[in-house]
From TrEMBL:
GO molecular function list: ribosomal large subunit binding
Source taxon at top rank: Bacteria
One family name in Pfam for this protein: RsfS
GO cellular component: cytoplasm
Coiled-coil intervals, chain numbering: none
Subunit note: Interacts with ribosomal protein uL14 (rplN).
Main location class: cytoplasm
Compartment(s) of residence: Cytoplasm
Keywords, ordered alphabetically: Cytoplasm, Repressor, Translation regulation
Family: Belongs to the Iojap/RsfS family.
Keyword Iron-sulfur: no
Name of this protein: Ribosomal silencing factor RsfS
Function as written in the Swiss-Prot or TrEMBL entry: Functions as a ribosomal silencing factor. Interacts with ribosomal protein uL14 (rplN), blocking formation of intersubunit bridge B8. Prevents association of the 30S and 50S ribosomal subunits and the formation of functional ribosomes, thus repressing translation.
């Protein structure tokens, strides 16, 4: 099983918004074969709480305006802005403070899943995640 094309397109819209807001380490995984409740996971980092919140807001705005009026089913972590989770059903967005991302290292959970080409400018060629 692979992620729906609509999910991948939405994740690319979200990644472009995050990139525009200067997010770091933007990566997405096709997790559809491992879990049945979602297709994709997008991860992005920021260096402070204000930037975490700004990135999440920009992602929400772009998915609404460019993604067919998509709105998250759930939003978690907005008050603390250390780790904001946006649940769109078919895909999930994690915008994390870099310290939280380093601590939880979610990439290790999905490292066996295919990475999604986000088609971002100047994105590095697919590299293996180091442990």
């Amino acid at each position: 099983m692979t992620a729906l094309a609509s999910s991948i397109n939405s994740v690319r819209i979200a990644a472009a918004a995050a990139d525009r807001m200067k997010a770091q380490d933007i990566v997405a995984y096709d997790v559809s074969a491992q879990i049945g409740i979602t297709d994709c996971m997008l991860l992005a980092s920021a260096s402070n709480e204000r930037q975490v919140l700004a990135i999440a807001e920009e992602i929400e705005k772009d998915l609404y305006t460019k993604g067919g009026k998509l709105q998250p089913r759930g939003r978690e972590g907005v008050q603390e802005a250390q780790w904001i989770l946006l649940d769109y059903g078919d895909f999930i967005v994690h915008v994390m403070h870099e310290e939280a991302r380093d601590f939880y290292h979610l990439e290790r959970l999905w490292r066996d899943c295919p990475r999604i080409d986000l088609e971002l400018p100047d994105a590095p060629v697919d590299t293996a995640d180091a442990d």
